Amino acid sequence: MLFAIVDIETTGGNPLQGGITEIAALIHDGNRVIDTFHTLINPQQFIPGFITGLTGIDQEMVKDSPIFAEIASEFFDFLKDKIFVAHNVNFDYTFIKEAFRKEGYVYDVQKLCTVKLSRKAFPGYKSYSLGRLCEHLNIRIENRHRAIGDAQATAILFGKIHGQNSDVISQSLKKNSGELFLPPNISIEKYLELPESTGVYYFHDAKGKVIYVGKALDIRSRFKGHFSGTSKDKAKMDLKYEIHDISVEVTGSEFLAYLIEMLEIKRLWPKYNKSQKFKSSNWGLVSYEDASGFLRFQISKVASAINTVQQFDSHSEAWKFLMDNVETFELCPKLSGMQKSNEACFDHKIQKCKGACCGKEQPDSYNERVQLFLSTIDELSGSILIREKGRNKEEQAAMFFENGLFSGYGFISHSESISKLSEVFDVLKKVKMIPESKYILKSFLGKIPMNNIMVIKEGF
456: which DSSP letter? Predict the structure, then answer.
């Protein structure tokens, strides 16, 4: 069994955009290095100043060096049939695999990470960076942050791991060992500590700052899903290298997990929650009566002077909500602000509108259906307590809503009673009310048994 111990220097951290500036690969037979491949590479792109400051490699050094295409065949043969080994292996492996792909080579071999191997062979260190490990193990690094120097140090480290506990290497090579997907700074022990339960999880960077918040029915399975398989998404790759720790809050209830995730994203604005990160410009559904007595609708930006019957975090969400209900309650698209016409709406021509827009239906008849629609929105007004599955059999998750907005939660026993507003926050944790929680409530309300929903009054 032969191992190719590899280190590269690059122009940046993204293999889809960055270029390789130096490659070093040492063939190791488990006892010693038996062959070496080393070259500078012309990346055919600008080398940033901070990269030159770190590695010492500048444009002048690589201008006469081969481009990757010129060494691809030789290097592919050098690596072929060897197990790929590197410190933080996914970085080097992904760059090289992508470079080979661009030249028409399919490179797919087993790989080992000396960060993960070192955690098992030498447990207890605070840091498993190459520099710190070499200090602990008295390994001298020549030419730090150059590919050949770091590769030679990694080869010595690998030899020590092999000598300390060769079983660590053989176990890691098992096809289904389940560790290959793990980010370099997350140990298998940390992964196995994650609950197979419903809740909210937090990814932290090296300083403990939350950089991502998510929800899951099975937190451990969801974590694996984040990093399994191959991805060319830069944000996903960056997250994999930036995550250093995970924390969780088990909820039992999927509904509560959705709500807490929303709250935490709004509170923390994590770096990698891009899809939910940007603060919304609220839109509202406005109802008014026209000169003929018909109740009409309009979607507009929320303003203090405008009374809305429902609010949304985007125009498209408001539009879809109205469009769905226009169809459900057989309302006129023209009177609902969805079609502009001097004559009857298009839906009347295809017999989907009863003709309020062209004198074929009277206001009283039409407005009855409008009021029925509005009453479904009013159902969310007032104060309600919803009980859901808890974290264990002895408890329930309790969620409190005021006028459709999430305002508190906690975990209570099956027998515990909350019947008055004055009792709610003696038992539950109060949270900041956010408009988006109303939409989560609406999406889950139909799934909740009516006997799990209680109207809370001021007193009896």
Answer: -
Apex 176 CA angle, 171 and 179, nearest 5 = 70
DSSP state of 279: P
Identify the residue whose tokens are 């690596």.
79
Query: Look-up: residue for tokens 């300083």?
Result: 207
Rounded alpha-carbon distances, angstroms, from residue 338 to 34, 187, 249, 291, 326: 74, 54, 43, 19, 9
Q: Are 203 and 180 in contact (CB under 8 A)?
A: no
Tell me which long-range contacts 321-324 makes (C-beta under 8 A, separation of at least 24).
321/285, 322/285, 322/297
Distance, in Å, from the CA atom of 433 to the CA atom of 383, rounded to the nearest integer, reads 13
Q: For residues 111 and 93, is the Cβ–Cβ distance under 8 A?
A: yes
**In sequence order, what DSSP letters do the residues of 391-445 get, joined into one string?**
SSTTEEEEEEEETTEEEEEEEEETT----BHHHHHHHSEE----TTHHHHHHHHH
CA-to-CA distance for 214 and 265, rounded, in angstroms? 9
Can you give the pLDDT at residue 446? 64
CA distances, 454 to each of 69, 228, 399, 457 (Å): 69, 42, 11, 10
> Tell me, what's the pLDDT at 305?
59
Q: Is the distance from CB of 28 to CB of 3 less than 8 angstroms?
A: yes
Q: For residue 243, count other CB atoms closer than 10 A to its CB.
A: 23
Helix and strand totals (H; E) in the chain? 18, 16
Residue 10: phi and psi, rounded to 5, are -135, 175
Instruction: Tell me what pLDDT residue 74 has.
Output: 96
Q: Is 81 helix (H, G, I), strand (E, B) or coil?
A: coil
Q: How far apart are CA 5 and CA 27, in angstroms?
A: 6
Q: Which residues pair with 10 in a beta bridge?
A: 20
pLDDT at site 1: 82
Pull the structure tokens for residue 192. Answer: 């196995």
Q: Which residues of the chain carry a pLDDT beneath 50?
A: 175-177, 277-279, 460
Nearest-angstrom CA–CA distance, 90 and 227 = 11
The pLDDT score that the predictor gives to residue 320 is 85
Q: CB 163: neighbour CB atoms within 10 A? A: 11
CA dihedral 367, 372, 373, 375 (to 10 degrees): 120
**Amino acid residing at 67:** I
Tell how far CA 336 is from the center of its chain. Answer: 37
CA-CA distances (angstroms) from residue 349 to 123, 160, 319, 352?
Answer: 75, 81, 22, 8
